[in-house]
Amino acid sequence: MTIALTKQAVEQARWTAQAAQVLHQHAPIIARTCAEASENTIIVAIVEQDCSFGGSWSLPREQLHERVQHLEDQEGKWLLTFAPLASLEVIEQQCTSVNRLASKRGEVIERWLSKHTS
After folding, report:
1. CA of 65: how far to CAs of 5, 72, 117, in Å?
2. 3-state SS of the chain: helix, strand, coil percent to 5?
3. What is the C-alpha to C-alpha distance for residues 52 and 19, in angstroms, rounded to an integer?
4. Which of 1, 18, 94, 117 is the most exposed place for a label (fewest CB within 10 A)?
């Protein structure tokens, strides 16, 4: 996998970190969706282009690819998936992890750009 070292990559990393924060703030809602989901589903949580919480719902596993592809085609949306029965703690940890990794990625790319571009 090639990583693009551009200003756009830095912005994408920042957007990812911010979206993960939005989901972290709405973790109790996502946890309720997880608690109510059946075993053969995947929970999808959405962040809208304006950085608002777009909701969470469970999707049958067999429809996951089709539904996620449709959601990703809607420009500017960001999504993260969770397992049925995922606890509030697990959801918060996953959001925190994504936020931390995206922030670090953006910082590393930004440092590289500042050293290698004029």
Report:
1. 29, 10, 39
2. 60, 15, 25
3. 9
4. 1
Q: What is the pLDDT of residues 73-113, one digit of tens each?
A: 666 788 899 999 999 999 999 999 999 999 999 999 999 99
Please report, as a single letter, which amino acid is at residue 5.
L
For the full predicted model, state whether its pTM sits above 0.90: no
Give residue 53's identity as a one-letter amino acid code. F
Q: Are 44 and 71 in contact (CB under 8 A)?
A: yes
**């049958």: which residue's tokens?**
60
Q: Which helix (H) or strand (E) holds 82?
A: strand 78-82
Q: Is the dihedral of CA 25, 54, 12, 63 positive or negative?
A: positive
